[in-house]
Design brief:
Layout lengths: L17 H4 L10 E4 L3 H11 L12 E4 L4 E5 L4 H14 L4 E10 L10 E9 L17 H13 L5 E8 L7 H9 L4 E3 L2 H11 L2 E12 L4 E2 L8 H16 L1
Parallel strand pairs: 1-3, 1-4, 4-8, 5-6, 6-7
Antiparallel strand pairs: 2-3, 4-7, 5-8, 8-9
């Protein structure tokens, strides 16, 4: 059975759009948005880098201004459907560049918890992206944004690793054969959102990227959580914000 089920969907008009949802709304957002999925990290960012006042009463999630160019968003859920909705909605409110900054499972044990991973491609093993792009379309971030993130993170003293990520909806169904296969293929991480972000961003015409800190190690034998799980995230925030600020000016 093809997916999505209805042939020709990608050329068809939507019944309900972000423009319909936001009709009459005059609010605008900063042109770049850092997207956070880990609640504790999001709270830390809000306390450290914002004045604690949300800047949007519209739609999903809580959004705080970091500077004139960049805001940070959290408390909107996880996974592909939530990510697709936020990209459509927030791009309609003026966001031109989105960057995930969050945790991922690591398939490569040579990557250490102090190394950020910048995704260069996402394997589409979720559902939402297929409603935005044909099955054969790649899910890739914006090349210029990836290059800038690599440079900025490197300049901040981080040993950046780049490569593919596996995006799946079903974190309790990451099976042994799949893990073995993607590990053999050199895929670095597994998570729930990157493929959707990249595909929807391409659809609406905005930039997107994803930066991950290691939350756990996933192998065919077991899953282990390092002592420094996700501890790198706070160190990555300022370089990511600097990259986004430069990208939208």
């Amino acid at each position: 059975m093809p997916f999505p089920n209805f042939e020709g969907k990608h050329d068809a008009q939507s019944v309900f759009t972000p423009e319909d949802l936001l009709a009459g709304v005059e609010e605008t957002l900063p042109p770049a948005l850092v997207v956070c999925y880990q609640d504790a990290f999001f709270r830390e960012v809000v306390e450290t880098y914002t004045d604690g006042n949300t800047i949007s009463d519209v739609g999903m999630g809580d959004i705080y201004r970091v500077n004139d160019d960049v805001a940070v968003m959290g408390n909107f859920g996880i996974g592909g459907p939530a990510t697709a909705g936020l990209v459509e909605e927030k791009s309609e409110l003026g966001v031109e560049a989105f960057c995930i900054l969050g945790g991922a499972g690591c398939l490569d044990p040579s990557i250490t918890p102090d190394q950020p991973v910048v995704a260069t491609r996402a394997i589409r093993d979720e559902g939402a992206s297929y409603h935005y792009q044909p099955p054969e379309a790649p899910a890739e971030p914006s090349p210029a944004l990836v290059d800038s993130l690599n440079s900025e993170l490197g300049a901040a003293g981080h040993q950046v690793v780049t490569g593919s990520t596996w995006t799946t909806d079903a974190f309790f169904r990451e099976t042994v054969p799949e893990v073995e296969h993607y590990t053999e293929q050199g895929v670095l991480t597994v998570e729930m959102e990157a493929a959707t972000l990249f595909s929807v961003a391409e659809y609406v015409g905005v930039d997107a990227a994803a930066v991950f800190a290691i939350g756990d190690y996933v192998t065919a034998d077991d899953r282990t959580v390092p002592e420094a799980s996700l501890g790198l995230l706070p160190e990555l925030f300022e370089p990511v914000v600097g990259t986004l600020s430069a990208s939208v000016r």
